[in-house]
Amino acid sequence: MPDPDCATLRAARLAGKHIRGAECIDTTASEYQPVKYCHQHNLVEPDKAGAEKKYGIRVTLPQGDTFQRLLGEHWERVRWYATEAERDRAFDDMAKRHGYYRKTDTPTQVLQKIIR
């Protein structure tokens, strides 16, 4: 079966049908809706989404860490925050030993406070 076009998909959707494996994103359609924030685990807070975030935390691995075999030698993640206080709270939370570690586990991430 050939891939249906957007008009066919819209008509099927309006009729209450779904064509499995088919997707159409048409931003001009009247039924187009922006993505809603509906899960608590989302990293984006809607009321803060447009705020300038200049305080950050860089997460890296120490030189020679065995996780570098999985993630790569130059792996890093950066999280940005709107205020220094917000960043510092997150830093303290990331730096403490969480209860889900086994007694023999020792986290080896390197945390660094940064400003852009």
Q: How would you sum up this structure, described in words?
A:
- With 116 residues, this protein is α+β, with helices and mostly antiparallel strands.
- It has 2 domains: 1-33, no CATH class; 46-115.
- The protein contains 3 helices and 3 strands; from the N terminus they run αβαβαβ.
- It has a 3-stranded antiparallel beta sheet, with helices on one face.
- The longest helix is centred in the last third of the chain and has 12 residues, at 84-95.
- It is extended and about 55 Å long.
- The model has no long low-confidence stretch (mean pLDDT 76).
Largest sheet: 3 strands, antiparallel
End-to-end CA span: 52 Å
Integer-rounded radius of gyration: 22 Å
As for the number of domains, it is: 2
Q: Give the H and E element order.
A: HEHEHE
Number of helices: 3
Shape: extended
- Fraction of helical residues: 10-25%
What is the count of β-strands?
A: 3
Mean pLDDT: 76
Structural class: alpha+beta
Strand order within the widest sheet? 2-1-3
Short overview:
The chain is α+β, with helices and mostly antiparallel strands and 116 residues long. Helices cover 22% and strands 16% of the residues.
Write out key terms for the chains shown:
single chain, 116 residues, alpha+beta, three-stranded antiparallel beta sheet, 3 helices
